[in-house]
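Continuing the batch. This is chain 6 of the set; chains 1 through 5 are on the previous pages. Same settings as before, nothing changed between runs. Recording input and output for traceability.
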Amino acid sequence: MPFFGFFYPFTLFQLYAIANIRHNMAEDNGAARSLFLAALMITSVMTGILFFGIEDEGVNRSPTIDSDVPDSMIIGELDTINITVFDEEMGGLSLLITLNDEQVNNDLDSNGNASLDISHLDVGSHVIRVVATDSLGQDSAFTKVFSINHPPESNTAVSITPETLEISKGGTAPISGIVIHDYVDTCSLRWSSGDISESSLGLPISDTGSFELELSNIQENTTLSMEATCGLWTETSSVVTTKITVIQEIVTGCTDSEATNYNDDAEEDDGSCEYETEPEPVLGCMDQNALNYDENATEDDGSCVYDEEPVDNSTGSKAWWEKVLLCDSTEQVSPIDDYNTTESDNHICQLSFEIGDSEIVIQSNGIPNHDLESGPGCCTSEQNLEWTIPLNPVNQTGCEPSISTDGCTMAPERDSVAFSVNGVPIFGPEDAPGGDAVAGQEGAYEEDRQHIWLGICHGHSGPGGAYHYHADANCAHWHPDEENNQTWRDYSIDSSRTLSRHSDIVGFAFDGYPIYGFVGWDEEGNISEMKSSYRLKDGETGYNGIIDYEYVQGLGDLDSCNGHFGATPDHPDGIYHYHSTWENGEGGIGFPYFINCYRGEVSIDDARGDNNGGGDDDCSGYGETWGPGIGPPPAGCGGGGQGGQNGQSSEISGTIGGIIGTEPPRGELLGLLILAVVSVRVLASLPISPNRADKAVLYQ
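Output for chain 6:
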């Protein structure tokens, strides 16, 4: 607009003038023309300036905003702050003011001022935002951050005299001092000879902060504490102590009243007693627990007689093992019912042990101390099992399970890896086809190789009727509430995961270290469910067993062997031990459920004896007996002989195994008939477990 304000008058007016000049050029001399042109240009410039000024005066700018708010202030210093807004058209102005994001309804006065009340604001940081909009929709924004502070105030300080004091027993201790603070009238002072936070007494202070205290008849060493608390705006405290030491002289001398130099004032015998004749010792039993205890005896003669010989109940003693191992000869055990049969089998849990110099030998018939479900393969039978483990386990050199399983002896993937306190074998996590038996049971994957059925306490029978656990094993310590009509079918794994105390021992690994239940003490000594540090690899389900899992250091509470070092109720000074696990640190399934490797030195074959078979042989655990939950032997493993643990032979099972492996020829109706009969009986015997459905949902 200024550009055209200058040239517009020039263009119209001068064109006309130039035309006249050119018309009269011949008539005018050069001087006249020059003067005329100069006057014409001056007139044009003045006209442009006039037009430019008019144009500039017509511009409507956005509003301007100002404030008198300081960056910081002392609380109570200002009650109000002012906002000033200016615009060419004040009547068309709209205003939005917020204080700490809350709208403030303040109108401008005739001078464009708005007053904001801040008397209610507390100490801290505050924000004022103003948005002004004129009649043309032009916005202006203003933001101001300011702080309100307490006035500066000194910290509380206490000075006490003396800091240490020595007095005689029964003496007096005078104490004095001063409390230092800007506002002494706000101070309070208390003192205590014990824990000042739990028990204390008030002590008056003067206007200047001085105080005095006198303790009398002091009998023992005392530490006196004093705490002052002051503050008008900000409360601070200071604690000082003074140590009072009682100096007491112990009177020594002969304290035997039978002595000739007996000193009635003596507090401590100095061995100076003298006698007319040396008294003869009074012989007798000096053990107060003995039946013939003699309170007058001064010398024990070994004659003590006891109702029962004293029993060593310490950890690792015979009495301790009798308490930990169940089903021994001292325990009354009820008949065990196999729920896969129509009638009680009247099995009896039996276990015995012998303690040697460095090892203990456990023998068991393999029957648990609780009712069971042997599984679709049916049926549990008595075994002849034996395990030998060290009494004092020793860590393997080069095995660092907190880092990895490298250098550690791995537990067998299948068959026995440990034994429970009731004499039942504890198996590895894999089932016969090489999948994760527990994950398959809990519905982690769709099983198409072999039906998995783990009954009560996640145990079932394998070939030869050998009952064993794949997980849990806490049934050894659970008993149904018969008054509320509970049976073993009412057992829930949650009852063992929510204990308010440390779990009991559920078994022992072959290296001699104990296996506890789900609950233990964490690093802070708190009760907590122990979590595994294994998780499924990406894209895996557990279907292929151990190879589907990976150890992640720190994922859970336990190391790669599924154990850790720490205190237990049996070993308060700490011992390496394992835990049964149901979850990992992410809430997934708690592989390996018992152990994956051994922390201690171990010889697996020596530990589990000749009657526990198995191992990592592809054909181990298979015999001619098969069925759902057991499965036919793999190709190349054959069918006869003793398979697995005390495997039994059956012509019918061998025939069915052959039928399963091949398509039956036409006419072999007998084989098909046998298969149908066995299948119907298996399905008819399957128990209904209301708890299993919930677990399947958890690990889908």
